[in-house]
């Protein structure tokens, strides 16, 4: 009698990225894995931090399909070597994940695939406070290689893991700068009325500020054929995070236009993150 073999799914993700309280997995990750196992066709193998960080890849569990994505401290090159050795089906391709750590490379990839981006310019410094002959700052604009950006404009660190993003406002609106950051309690931005000069500690992207009516839209893709979109109050408004009675950030499902759906599809294909 032939025994039906289950498809093994390896979860090669740092535990701090998926832990929730005393549980091994967060509620969303747990939902994904529970639904996979409910089919009866899959067996889930969780690698764990000790295996990922300490064991050689030859000792990692062998699986048919690999769920792996970067978080702080994750050995991405090691996971790539494992994938080369065992050749599992990759839910998220590993090599393109290197691009996500550098906003310059992200923008290059978007442009390569014809995906629209705001008008932007790069200021690259090899050392902090390096004087650059192509960079000019005046009260209400910066100029990069002759490309002028009038306030309000956005300043982003080139490092994708650095979420300290600034918006500088024109003197006609009272000036000042708004700092955006990852949610801390009920705050996601802070206004600094006396800051008028841009940062010079490192390398930055400058781009046009795009008004959105106080709303941000997050799009989640599951492969190139499916996208789910949610709107939330933009941190640009007042920096206060709207939460429901359960403490979760308030979000509303929204319908994407055909153009937006196509853009979501192209982003998924460009970065090969299913």
UniProtKB/TrEMBL annotation:
Statement: the UniProt record of this protein carries the keyword Membrane: no
Q: Name one GO biological process term.
A: inositol phosphate biosynthetic process
* Enzyme type, top EC level: transferase
Q: Name one GO cellular component term.
A: cytosol
Annotated GO MF terms? 5-diphosphoinositol pentakisphosphate 1-kinase activity; ATP binding; inositol hexakisphosphate kinase activity
EC numbers: 2.7.4.24
Q: Which UniProt keywords apply?
A: Acetylation, ATP-binding, Cytoplasm, Kinase, Nucleotide-binding, Phosphoprotein, Transferase
Q: Where in the cell is it found?
A: Cytoplasm, Cytosol
Q: What is its main location?
A: cytoplasm
Enumerate the SUPFAM superfamilies for this protein. Glutathione synthetase ATP-binding domain-like
Q: Which InterPro entries match?
A: His_Pase_VIP1, VIP1_N
Asked whether the keyword ATP-binding is assigned, the reply is: yes
VIP1 N-terminal domain: residues covered? 7-102
Entry similarity comment: Belongs to the histidine acid phosphatase family. VIP1 subfamily.
The name this protein carries in UniProt is: diphosphoinositol-pentakisphosphate 1-kinase
